[in-house]
Structure formats: structure tokens, C-alpha cells
Amino acid sequence: MDDGENRWNTTFLRAYSAALDEAEASVGPAALVTASANEKFFSNGLDLEWASTSGEHRGGDRSVFGVEYMAMVGRLITFPIPTVSAMNGHAFGAGLMTALGHDVRIMREDRGYLCANEIEIGLTIPAPELALFRHKLSASAFHETVMLAKRWTGKTAMAAGFVEAVAATDAVLDTAIARAAQLAPLGANRVNLAWQKEQAYGTEAALNRPDGAAHMLKHSRDYPSDPRH
Asked: How far apart are CA 109 and CA 165, in angstroms?
């Protein structure tokens, strides 16, 4: 990701989805590593300037973003090859959500925060996103994240179990690539891996019936996102 703070808008989303298309079109053992070109930010969340204005904008069509973004994260959760997020800096809001869509997270050990800060800025977390957090976080980490807007460091997130490892700044990407190489053989039989992920996170998910995070994200229009609507 190489767009400054990597804030999410429709243009950025569609470029990201195109990269997923390319990865999915590969054959044989493989794994996906997501990284940022920015030294400080993995992703600083929603592009608020774009979302709060009207008219022409490089960020693209505002009206389709919510549904398209939720569906992309649902796709990421059930991606047919292993996925690793190399988190070299801050991940807020949609940035954290995207990272949690991966199978494994590697984070910088000395700086950077992970935070779902919607409650701090007057927003609510839509039900499909809450489902993602609930599936990926322990009960206590879930409460601290979505209710208290806790800012997790790499070390505290690793202690809470949703970051697998931490590394020095210049080693995060290499560590993520090495982990992806270990996981790549799991991507040789993509039908099996995709099926198992769907059982865990899709419709009538084995871990939390009746609906799992990926199904809710892919069909986000069917679920409430704000108590005012």
C-alpha cells in the first residue's frame, strides 16, 4: 500500500481489490503479504476528508464504498491462500479491520498503535465489523477494542493473542515474508483452504451460528450499521 497514510476510499479500495485478484489468480503453493510503503502508518483508516465532502474527488464514488469495502474484507477473511499482514505502523479503524481480515499479523515492536477509534470520533461500528472483531479477538480484547477504544501496541496485542509476533522496524516485512513462506504450502489446495475458512467465518459459521463475519460483511446491507437508521 503506497498512498500516503493509506486511508480507505473507493479508489484505494478498488486498487487493493485488484491486487487481491492478481494474488488469487496465481497457482500452486502461495501466501499473500500485505505491507505499507509508509514508515509510520500501516493504514490510518477511512479517508474522512473524502467521506465528509461532496463533488469530484480522487477518492471516487462515495455511495458504493461501504458495501464494497465490507465485501472486500469478507473476501479477505476467506481468501484461498494464507494471508499475512506486515504492520510497520499505526492501524486505525478500517486499517485495523483490514489487518484482522488476515490470517496472521506481524507488527513493529517499538512504535505504532492498533485502534478501533469509531466511538472516539462520533461514529458507530457496523454489525458486520463487530462480528469480525468478535471472531478475531478474545472476549476481553473485544470489549477493550470496541467499547473502550483501546490503543494496542505490538507487544500488548501479541500478549492479547491477535498479533502473532513483533519485530524491529526494519525486520517487520522480512519476518512477515518468512512466515508467509512457512504457510505457503497450505495454499496449494485452495479449494480445501477456502472451504475451511468459509466454515469458520461464512454463513452458518461453525464457530458462531447462524451468521459469521464474512457472510455479514459480504451482505452488509442486511445488517444494521447505525442506530439512527
From this structure: 9
| Distance, CA of 142 to chain centre | 15
13-51 pLDDT per residue, tens: 999 999 999 999 999 999 999 999 998 999 999 999 999
Q: Structural domain boundaries of the chain?
A: 10-222
Task: Indicate the pLDDT class of residue 209, thresholds 50, 70 and 90.
Answer: low
Q: What is the pTM of this model?
A: 0.90
Of 85, 123, 64, the closest CA to residue 6 belongs to 85
CA of 102: how far to CAs of 124, 145, 196, 226, in Å?
23, 18, 15, 26
Which residue's entry shows cell 484482522?
Answer: 100
Rounded to whole angstroms, the Cα distance separating 75 from 17 reads 9
Q: Tell me the CATH number for domain 10-222.
A: 3.90.226.10
